[in-house]
Amino acid sequence: xxxxxxxxxxxxxxxxxxxxxxxxxxxxxxxxxxxxxxxxxxxxxxxxxxxxxxxxxxxxxxxxxxxxxxxxxxxxxxxxxxxxxxxxxxxxxxxxxxxxxxxxxxxxxxxxxxxxxxxxxxxxxxxxxxxxxx
Length: 134
Fold this sequence. Notes:
By secondary structure, the chain is mainly beta. It has one domain. It has one helix and nine strands. Strands 2-1-6-7 form a four-stranded antiparallel β-sheet, with no helix packed on it. Strand 3 (66-69) and strand 4 form a beta hairpin.
């Protein structure tokens, strides 16, 4: 798990210069699926899944969307992507962005690759999407 480069810069600007995050007003965060690592310098559309009917999923930026404990964050409720209605691909990574932004806040690899084809509906059960800061 890691932060995107822009987010790393935002954190340092906030910590050392009291510069507010540009995306702080976002009320939702958006979870994306990727077919390969979008990379530290990538954005949410880098290697993003594109199966027929795919759409990233908005999650409330609140205690109903995420829980934080110590140095870890996880989804508080089911995150369910649209069911695939055509084509196929394999998801290997995820990213989280502010709603209506491509800036990757945090990204990581899935614990297991997910083969997506017609009829498959990718999802993360509550507590299954976990990111830990080291």
